Amino acid sequence: MKKHQFLDYRNKLILAPMVRVGTLPMRLLALEMGADIVYTEELVDLKLIKSVRRLNPALSTVDFVDPSDGTIVFRTCALEKSKVVLQLGTSDAARALAVGKLVQYDVAGLDINMGCPKEFSIKGGMGAALLADPAKAAHILRTLSSQLEIPVTCKIRILPDLLDTIRLVQQLAVTGIAAIGIHARTRDERPQHRPHPDVLHAVASAVDIPIIANGGSRDMHTYDDLHKFQALCGADSVMVARAAQFNVSIFRKQGILPVDEVIYKYLRLCIDYDNAPHNTKYCVQSILKELQETPRGKRFLQCQTLQQICEIWDLGDYCRRRQQELKDRGNAGRANVILTQCPTKRQKLGLPDSSTDEYQGVIYRNVAFLRSTYTSDTQLPKMMLYVHAGRTDKEPPCYETLRCDKLFRAICSYDGQRYSSSFWEKNKKQAEQGAALVALLQLGHLREKTLLDNGSLIS
Ligand SMILES: Cc1cc2nc3c(=O)[nH]c(=O)nc-3n(C[C@H](O)[C@H](O)[C@H](O)COP(=O)(O)O)c2cc1C
Question: Domain for residue 438, yes or no?
Fold first, then answer.
């Protein structure tokens, strides 16, 4: 079968698929640092199938957008086109094929996750569940390999028995796939357990298909360690997850870079590609690790917006300028999609129209509740509003909470009016404080300038 763009999986340094980590900015940084191939985070077929492909001229990206809420399911760009492999979570050949056809002209390869031990995957018959059903796994791979224009691979784990592992790899290898990534641990082994490079070595010797060794991050501290693990496994290539999550410059031949330099480079890409703030924050947290305990780390943990994060790494001005530039160029973000395609879910979630401050009778402001800016409990917004009610002989404020995934938003009802922050918060209490903050601001009990100065209010 002639593939329009054949990706060679031999002698490659590969960024492993990592949920939340493997989004566009991290993939681009990994390539800049020296990775040859970068995998996306696992994307589930059902989510991708219903997404809409859009060119985003402001960012020069291709976006696959969830039409029900406008979120970006997958964002990619020309810089990575010949090196990005999309990892798919699937249990169904027809669905996987539909996704493959949707994305095949925007990516260099498609990988099927056959190693994820998480309950969500197993229950859906995806990930490591496929290891127990080799016939189904082979059917999915054969369907994709024979009908897509791009190379197809899979990522598996070893089985408890070596011969079973070899048999499985042989069974999958004849489906037409271009390579197999193998995590050198069994389904029940956790990341802290030692990997089994000897098993990979035995498998690699028994098959012809390129083997990509994975699972060696525990002992990867320098660039040379990547090649050491590859050699130990007798593999054709090496795939790195956690060592790259902590410091992606592990791919850099000239040596690892200091953490702050990595964060600076990463944040610039997040700004350039309008990466979601919660995703940016998660990745920076992974890089900072124990540095989160320092005063600067604690300040960082309070951040809610990309702008606030960027201020800490001296990228505040760049972030402001670039965000304005992107807005001027018409970067749609999520708003356009939400408004035109799914008002129902939008209303259910209580999302405001980004161009107005009032939506369905609720007054919204871009105010984040930053706990570190309050020195005493009596200054907390909810307390201030409660005290105000007592002094002016009004009913105390009451709160209702909206929840979306693991994030919260609250609406504060006070004196016949409803208030909410447009930011999603990590917990219910913070969401209520954010809503009270909006009420105080609108009622004139807090000055806009104070909130702008302490970074709570985004104009
Ligand atoms: C944050 C994180 C997210 C991950 N997400 C995925 C994923 O989406 N798909 C997948 O196949 N494996 C995923 N993994 C597993 C890794 O790809 C890899 O197999 C595992 O971490 C072992 O490699 P390492 O020793 O280099 O970390 C993830 C691992 C981490 C740490």
Answer: yes
d(CA 232, CA 99): 36
As a whole number, mean pLDDT of residues 135-146 equals 98
| Domain match, 232 and 376 both | no
In-domain check, residue 442 = yes
- 380 and 245 share one domain: no
Percent of the chain with pLDDT over 90: 74
pLDDT of 70: 78
Answer yes or no: do 234 and 372 share one domain. Answer: no
For ligand 1, the distance from its centroid to the CA atom of residue 85, given in whole angstroms, is 15
Q: Are residues 235 and 99 in the same domain?
A: yes
The rounded distance, in Å, linking the Cα atoms of 345 and 336 is 14
35 and 263 Cβ atoms separated by less than 8 Å: no
- Per-residue pLDDT, 351: 52
Q: What CATH number should be reported for the domain holding residue 52?
A: 3.20.20.70
pLDDT of residue 378: 86
CA of 19 from ligand 1 middle (Å) equals 8
Q: Name which residue sits closest to atom 30 of ligand 1, judged by CA.
A: 18
Atom of ligand 1 nearest to the CA of 157: 19
Ligand 1 centroid to residue 300 C-alpha, Å: 25
Is residue 116 among the annotated active site residues?
yes
Averaged pLDDT, 224-228: 98
Q: Residue 42 has what DSSP assignment?
A: P
Q: Whose CA is nearest to atom 23 of ligand 1?
A: 215
Spatial distance between the Cα atoms of 302 and 368, rounded to a whole number of angstroms:
9
Q: Is the pLDDT of residue 298 over 80?
A: yes
Cα of 64 vs centre of ligand 1, distance in Å, is: 23
Please name the residue whose Cα sits nearest to atom 15 of ligand 1: 18
Contact 40, 280 (CB under 8 A): no
Region of 167 (left: φ > 0; alpha: ψ -120 to 50; beta: rest) is: alpha
Report whether pLDDT(186) > 90.
yes
- Per-residue pLDDT of 110-132, as tens digits, reads 999 999 999 888 989 999 999 99
Domain boundary residue among 228, 257, 286? 257
Contact 174, 135 (CB under 8 A): no
The verdict on residue 176 lying in a domain is yes
**What is the atom index within ligand 1 of the atom nearest the CA of 115?**
11
| Active-site option among 77, 116, 233, 319 | 116
Q: What is the pLDDT of residues 390-415, one digit of tens each?
A: 999 999 999 999 887 677 889 999 99
Nearest ligand 1 atom to alpha carbon 214: 23
* 3-state DSSP assignment of residue 180: strand
Range of the domain at 398: 350-459
Q: What's the pTM? A: 0.79
Our count of domains for the chain comes to 2
| Residue 293 forms part of a structural domain | no
Tell me: do 359 and 246 sit in the same domain.
no
pLDDT at 459 over 60: no
Q: Looking at 257, 288, 306, which one is the last position of a domain?
A: 257
Distance from Cα 241 to the centre of ligand 1, integer Å: 5
Write out residues with Cβ below 6 Å of ligand 1.
16-19, 21, 41-42, 87, 113, 115-116, 155, 183, 191, 214-217, 240-243, 245
